[in-house]
Design brief:
Layout (H helix, E strand, L loop, with lengths): L31 H14 L5 H9 L8 E6 L5 H6 L7 E7 L2 H10 L10 E7 L13 E7 L7 H14 L2 E15 L5 H12 L9 H11 L3 E6 L2 E3 L4 H18 L4 H16 L4 E12 L8
Parallel strand pairs: 1-2, 1-4, 2-3, 4-5
Antiparallel strand pairs: 5-8, 6-8, 7-8
Helix pairs in contact: 5-7, 6-8, 8-9
């Protein structure tokens, strides 16, 4: 989601992939503090039952001297690598992609150095965007990963990503795409209207928003890939009050940006919800979906 004022969108740190290139001296577009705030919820939400089919796929691939090559697109501060690399066996080489040099530096410094079995994990960084993720750039890759990315892409960009992975013969693990559903307890009469306005906001300027996983499933399947999806909801309670408060501001802010006539009512709604959050009375489930796709490795025949 996107706010009209800081902090950055609670749902879309990967939106930086779509923004105009910045100058080296400008500050990061997405504060590392926000990405760190959401990292535990992201890690708890990702669908671990996709790991076994991923491990089976990776186990059958030839290994380079430096291990399996993983490209992390829109890596931010590197939370995907910190979560996944220690869950996989064998040496790994992670290639971290982001437009923001500050986030890339943070991701490289905090990257894990060992895999689940103690094998070495190495890292390199590449400053750039999704348009540069061509089949040539993915030569030798075993896996492409991303977090909170698909819903801020257009259908053409999703098609490009699926085609690049298919051509390179690598799998894709794309996590935490918004599903368009939010459950708040206790309920409020304005919940549904805010949610609908937020979903409309996600689809502005041709972005896929909550339709992203369906579009990606179709795009990968069109290239002969096997696709599996699993739910990966954030489950936020009193222990995640700081994250919930930031998320609420972004969620309501995007709804008002989409429908300005909501401003007064949404302001009162947000005040009530933030008070409930501070009192430890609010529970929120933000629904996401994880997607794993894999086809035939490059250079292999059926």
């Amino acid at each position: 989601m996107r706010e009209t004022t800081p902090p950055p969108s609670a749902e879309h740190p990967a939106r930086r992939l779509r923004e105009a290139p910045g100058h080296c001296g400008e500050p990061p577009r997405y504060a590392p503090e926000w990405l760190r705030l959401r990292e535990p919820a992201d890690a708890a939400a990702r669908a671990r039952d996709l790991l076994d089919p991923l491990r089976i796929r990776l186990a059958g691939l030839p290994r380079r001297a430096d291990g399996l090559v993983v490209h992390d697109v829109g890596c931010g501060t590197g939370s995907m690598g910190r979560w996944l690399a220690p869950l996989l066996d064998g040496a790994q080489h992670w290639v971290l992609h982001d437009r923001d040099p500050y986030l890339l530096r943070s991701a490289a410094v905090t990257a894990p150095r060992s895999a689940a079995d103690g094998s070495r994990v190495t890292v390199e960084t590449r400053r750039g965007d999704l348009a540069r993720l061509t089949p040539d750039a993915l030569t030798g890759a075993a896996l492409v990963t991303a977090s909170a990315l698909l819903d801020v892409l257009t259908i053409e960009e999703v098609g490009t990503l699926a085609a690049a992975c298919a051509s390179a013969g690598c799998a894709a693990l794309l996590t935490l795409s918004v599903a368009g559903r939010v459950d708040l307890t206790p309920a409020h009469p304005l919940d549904a209207e805010i949610a609908e306005a937020f979903n409309d906001h996600q689809r502005r300027t041709g972005l896929l928003g909550p339709d992203a996983v369906t579009a990606a499933t179709e795009a990968f399947a069109a290239h002969g890939a096997t696709v599996r999806t699993r739910p990966s909801p954030w489950r936020l309670g009193p222990g995640e009050a700081a994250l919930t408060a930031q998320w609420l501001r972004g969620w309501a802010g995007a709804a008002v940006e989409q429908r300005p006539e909501l401003r007064e009512r949404a302001g009162r709604y947000l005040d009530e919800r933030l008070a409930s959050c501070a009192a430890g009375e609010l529970r929120v489930v933000v629904h996401h979906t994880d997607l794993l796709a894999w086809g035939r490795p490059a250079g292999r025949t059926p």
